Amino acid sequence: MVNLILFGPPGSGKGTQAKKLVEKYGLLHISTGDLFRYEMGNDTPLGKKAKSFIEKGELVPDEVTIGMLRNKVEANPEVPGYIFDGFPRTIAQSQVLDELMNEKNTSISTLLMLEVPDVEIINRILERGKTSGRADDLDENIIQNRIDVYKNETTPVFDYYEAQQKADKIDGVGSIEEIFDRLSTKVEERM
Ligand code: ADP
Questions:
Q1: pTM for the complete prediction?
Q2: Which end of the chain is more exposed for a tag (fewer CB within 10 A), N or C?
Q3: What is the mean pLDDT of residues 75-79?
């Protein structure tokens, strides 16, 4: 199996690149952001719980996020591998993910971090907000909070996988195809 973590700040292009990686390598894409939006769209108890955090640009508590992720992985056992997008965002989530992979006799192959400067991120998200229908994409204060949360709470996840020699940095500025080529090269090194 090849199991990837697509990592990087909000608006760094994880979702766009994940779709292309799915086409190329046949992996299952699991985006916690998409899962939360599905739950919120259906107004489920989980969606209601997540909404108050997401609309402030804060992380949803680990117990909520981890349970949802575990269900999704366990519902899809027979896949050639997973692409985790937006997960893990905390060390606790990383530890659970490693355990989960271990239970399946596999492991994370690599974490790929897309690096994009803050100004570019803010512009991309504001642009996306015009069509995405996402309330958290429309307000510059919420966007800035998501960037701050990424820097303060989520970047330790990079160090956690770097300590396992499993973390790579990728220049996230350029055309979609250029960035995809950079990612594919790294994926194939780890296959
Ligand atoms: P972004 O474009 O900001 O990376 P996502 O679509 O991945 O956004 O996630 C949207 C929101 O969902 C996040 O700002 C956060 O509130 C919540 N969220 C997504 N994944 C996680 C996670 N792994 N842990 C906690 N909260 C999460």
A1: 0.96
A2: C
A3: 95
